[in-house]
Design the sequence.
């Protein structure tokens, strides 16, 4: 359960992370018709990268968990992506809220077209909170890898600068939302999007920072 793995902490960026062998990253499955299943090679590659660079021992075969499932509490790191509609029922919103308040972490990655829907959905989860852009000095940009200019730009889309938004609960970042960035595309196999090695490395490094941050809270 979540309360067990909340005791796990990263000691320093260069030491092996005390993550139980075989733990999985998790992909969030939601309703509404959006393609929650986009980027199927992203999380396996991120898990392998973390294993190589953070000393973790993740199972690359990621888990898929529904928003309203009690299984949510078995995974310290949730990844959510897609291009379209997102709908949370009252029960699902309450379950996700409890998970995040209890110490879980959600990374939302707009794969282009998700923004107007996910903001409404997350407002149902935390009606009292607003997404705020995180300063470049925030610790999520200063984990194993340093990103002094914030998120890397992986895909062009509307040619807007990448933005990293957060939801804060009692001083803790519980949800990180990457917008106009497409980190998940950068995590995918190289032949999926033909991204440059430099872009993929930057995306994976930022993903590793997200994972490391989630485990040290």
Sequence:
């Amino acid at each position: 359960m979540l309360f067990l793995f909340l005791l796990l902490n990263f000691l320093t960026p260069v030491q092996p992370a005390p993550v139980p062998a075989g733990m999985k990253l998790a992909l969030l499955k939601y309703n509404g018709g959006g393609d929650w299943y986009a980027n199927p090679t992203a999380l396996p590659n991120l898990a392998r990268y973390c294993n190589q660079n953070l000393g973790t021992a993740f199972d690359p075969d990621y888990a898929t968990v529904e928003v309203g499932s009690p299984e949510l509490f078995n995974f310290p790191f949730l990844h959510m992506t897609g291009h379209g509609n997102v709908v949370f029922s009252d029960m699902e919103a309450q379950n996700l809220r409890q998970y995040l308040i209890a110490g879980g972490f959600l990374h939302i990655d707009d794969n282009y077209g998700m923004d107007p829907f996910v903001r409404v959905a997350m407002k149902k989860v935390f009606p009292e909170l607003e997404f705020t852009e995180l300063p470049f000095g925030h610790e999520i940009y200063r984990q194993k890898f340093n990103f002094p200019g914030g998120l890397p730009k992986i895909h062009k889309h509307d040619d807007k600068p990448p933005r990293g938004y957060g939801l804060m609960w009692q001083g803790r970042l519980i949800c990180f939302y990457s917008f106009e960035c497409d980190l998940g595309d950068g995590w995918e196999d190289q032949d999926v999007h033909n991204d440059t090695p430099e872009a993929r490395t930057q995306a994976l490094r930022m993903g590793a920072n997200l994972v490391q941050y989630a485990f040290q809270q």
